[in-house]
Amino acid sequence: MKIILAILIFSFIIIFHELGHFLFAKKCNVKVNEFTLGLGPTIISWGKGETKYCLKLLPFGGSCVMEGEDEESDSDRAFNKKTLWERFQIVFGGPLFNFILAYILSVVYIASIGVNDTTITEVMENMPAAEAGMEAGDKIISINGYRVHFYNEISIYTFLHPNDDTYTVVYSRDGKKHTATITPKYSEETGRRMLGVTKASDYQKVSPLRVLEYSVYEIKYQIYITLSSLRMLFTGQVSMNEVSGPVGVVTTISSVYDQSVTSGIFYVFVNLTSIAILLSANLGVMNLLPFPALDGGRILLFIIEGIRGKKMKPEIENGINLVGFGLLMLLMIVVMYNDILKLR
């Protein structure tokens, strides 16, 4: 059951991404030849109109195959015959829909569980925050200029910036803002440097308008985590062995299900919704990276086309995308292999 649930969540996020491409293609009057969920051999296909809908064997991908997208076509409804702005909309539509889905799920999540804000409930003795004069009841506003709205953003920020010598912490007390410069202290217990503040897991319900507002902050937070993790990967602070692919995602979802199910269906729903928010926002960001074969790579080619004032030769563009696709497949194999090794 939990494996099926994990695959359904993963597949839904992918199909929503492809739906963005599909709807913008229809908006721009581009013919969609095939709309697919999955990779590999086709299990079932249907559709009597111009679009064939397919379900493939491996539920770890999808596609929206448009007329004239990767080949020349004389049709007036071909992708390659559309204006630069129309093609941009179609390609950007996939990541955009991932962010829209992440926002919708954030609204559901925050409306269900509430918000654990940045008000401190305890300041540890002989720790940097206490030495800087911070007290229980203070509400942290920002760290090194990064605005925080949820308490877990505080620990995530310090985790993602382990090499910062000091943190400039802005906080409020009795309606007044204060600033403290804190040098984090290494904790043997946690294996990382800490400010020395804690907060009880105290989620408070907020008004409908605040739910909509905090949902924006949630998306900002998820995008920040993704970009910071990529930075740490490229700078060597995180190794490739710590990167997860589809198998790792399914394993994580299964693990969260096992940990939540003993507490009841509500906690299963809330925790899986939280993971779905992360996955959808993550997929949106990753697809916007300026790498060939990704949506971001195509957008980069559109920018180059706009600067040059003319299209790149189709054979060159297709060659670039083909090489990029090959590299992505190779990366996926490596990541999936690492995921499988972690299962042992």
Could you tell me the radius of gyration in angstroms? 23 Å
Helix content: 40-55%
Within CATH, the superfamily of the domain at 122-198 carries the name PDZ domain
By DSSP (H or I, 4+ residues per run), the number of helices equals: 9
Assembly state (oligomeric) = single chain
Structural class: alpha+beta
Low-confidence segments: none
Gross morphology is elongated
* Topology-level CATH name of the domain at 122-198: Pdz3 Domain
Measured by DSSP, the beta-strand proportion falls in 15-25%
Largest sheet: 4 strands, antiparallel
Number of strands: 10
Key traits:
344 residues; alpha+beta; Pdz3 Domain; 4-stranded antiparallel sheet; two-stranded antiparallel sheet; 9 helices; elongated
Give a short overview.
With 344 residues, this protein is an alpha+beta fold.
